[in-house]
Write a structure and sequence with these properties.
Blueprint: H1 4-22, H2 26-42, H3 44-55, H4 59-82, E1 88-91, E2 104-110, E3 113-117, H5 131-139, E4 143-146, H6 152-165, E5 172-175, H7 178-186, E6 190-196, H8 199-210, E7 218-221, E8 227-230, H9 236-248, E9 260-264, H10 269-278, H11 288-302, E10 311-315, E11 328-333, H12 334-339, E12 352-358, H13 364-368, E13 374-380, H14 391-397, E14 398-403, E15 442-448, E16 469-471, E17 474-476
Parallel strand pairs: 1-16, 3-4, 3-6, 4-5, 6-7, 8-9, 8-13, 9-12, 11-12, 13-14
Antiparallel strand pairs: 1-2, 2-15, 10-11, 16-17
Helix pairs in contact: 1-7, 2-4, 2-5, 2-6, 3-4, 3-6, 4-5, 9-10
Keywords: Oxidoreductase
Organism: Microbispora corallina
Protein name: Aldehyde dehydrogenase
């Protein structure tokens, strides 16, 4: 475990390294990020076995995750070269405006030291070298990561690999333990915090931030039930097989796991889903704590069977490991489900879900409007018109809307939004995946009538860096 003195040293060293890193030209930072991506791929043979020993996720999954993590570093190298994240704006003086307008120029700048809390379920892509870390480093912020207790050795090894590729290893600090996390959040030099974890954990971090003399932004990804709406024109067999695969992927330990499925009463959708889930197997969960949480969640649903209107639709098998868990799917009618809210709409992290049967899709918007915010919402249909009346509710409910697909799997790209209303995230306007996640670690500064020689290069009239800018109201590329 990391003591308070060591946390303080890590943050102070990161702050000192960050001052030099911010002054490094964007093109040079981009090359460094590409070098980190290359280093992760080069050391894959060391990284994946260490992660497998701690998480049981397997070679194929972990190799893929390392490749994804390396791709995130390459993406943010592209973001830096593009320059649009700086949001550079120039308004030249206009004495005839009302009121008269001075020369005003605005550009984004990095906040400072960013504290990052690793996730349990992605030991690479949402951990020490994950999206929070790379987006912060890209913009010029040093990072101090609180390692997840589920994969401490993987965290240490990943940090060592990344540091080898950085111009200053102090740009990436790493601390371990619950107390270290609290000290990190409270440190006066930490300017923002990124978090991926449970609602309870996110609330605890928010309380610590609220107690700081100077509050800071908190970007938390917390919990999501990711509802799926199946409409009558969908294919029952395709829905059932796709749902069972998505539900049990990684033993259900994805923030985008489909935990709630609305299906028509007619068409045999619930029977097809039950048969598909019964054919699945569970497995070992990432940590004993996560396993206990899953069992509590399933127990909560079990308690509502019978008189509570809920029934067990299907159970898979537990798998071969002694502490493996079993996939469980429950079913109920739309009226009973609505009467059981909000409890029936809560996430059960793991391979568990509730199937809700409805007689008429016209009754769905009223129920969807009562659900907690989610990262995703999915529609399955072959007739687009069937979904038209659902769109307003779905747009309010989730940050990513999926058509005839499944939510497990988040593309790392420019357009991705991995966020949503509470409790999916603490700040639904921001994403933790994709190019625009960089905006979390930026703050704008406006320069009024500032001497040209003291302006940042991005705001000089000759635009020496060639960044896209809005000049006198017009976008200039």
């Amino acid at each position: 475990m990391t003591g308070h003195a060591d946390v303080n040293e890590a943050v102070e060293r990161a702050a000192a390294a960050g001052a030099r890193w911010r002054a490094t030209p964007a093109e040079e930072r981009a090359r460094v990020l590409e070098g980190v991506g290359d280093a992760l791929l080069k050391h894959a043979e060391e990284l994946w076995p260490a992660a497998h020993a701690e998480t049981h996720l397997g070679e194929v999954r972990l190799r893929g995750e390392i490749a994804r993590t390396a791709a995130q570093f390459r993406l943010f190298a592209e973001v830096l070269r593009d320059g649009a994240h700086l949001d550079a704006v120039i308004d030249h003086p206009d004495p005839h405006a009302t009121p008269p307008r001075p020369d005003v120029r605005r550009v984004n700048q990095p906040l400072g030291v960013v504290g990052v809390f690793s996730a349990s379920n992605f030991p690479f892509a949402f951990s020490v070298a994950g999206g929070d870390t790379v987006s912060a480093l890209a913009v010029g912020c040093p990072v101090v990561v609180k390692a997840h207790e589920g994969h401490p050795e993987t965290s240490d090894l990943t940090a060592a690999v990344v540091r080898q590729a950085l111009p200053d290893p102090d740009l990436l600090g790493l601390v371990h333990g619950f107390e270290a996390g609290g000290a990190l959040v409270r440190h006066p030099l930490v300017t923002a915090v990124g978090f991926t974890g449970s609602i309870a954990g996110g609330r605890a971090v928010q309380r610590m931030i609220d107690e700081r003399p100077v509050p800071i932004p908190f970007y938390g990804e917390l919990g999501s039930v990711n509802p799926v709406v199946v409409l009558p024109s969908a294919d029952p067999a395709a829905v059932a097989s796709g749902f069972a695969a998505s539900l049990t992927l990684g033993v259900g330990q994805f923030c985008t796991n489909p935990g709630l499925v609305f299906v028509p009463e007619e068409g045999g959708f619930d029977r097809a889903i039950g048969a598909a889930v019964a054919a699945t197997a569970g497995g070992r969960m990432l940590t004993a704590k996560i396993r206990e949480g899953y069992l509590r969640g399933v127990g909560r649903l079990d308690d509502r069977t019978g008189e509570g209107g809920l029934a067990v639709l299907a159970s898979g098998t537990a798998g071969e490991e002694e502490d493996a868990v079993t996939p469980r799917v429950f079913s109920t009618g739309l009226d009973a489900f609505a009467g059981g809210l909000p409890e029936l709409g809560e996430e059960c992290f793991g391979p568990a879900a509730v199937v809700v049967r409805y007689r008429d899709a016209a009754g769905l918007p009223a129920v969807l409007d009562r659900l907690p915010g989610s990262l995703t919402a999915t529609v399955h249909a072959s007739d687009a018109e069937e979904a038209r009346d659902l769109v307003p509710s779905l747009r309010r409910l989730a940050g990513r809307l999926i058509w005839n697909g499944w939510p497990t799997g988040v593309a790392v790209c420019w357009a991705m939004h991995h966020g949503g209303p509470w409790p999916a995230t603490t700040t639904p306007a921001h994403t933790s995946v994709g190019a625009v996640s960089i905006r979390r670690w930026l703050t704008p500064v406006a320069y009024q009538d500032w001497p040209a020689e003291l302006l940042p290069p991005e705001l000089r009239d000759d635009n020496p860096l060639g960044v896209p800018r809005r000049v006198d109201g017009r976008l200039v590329l």
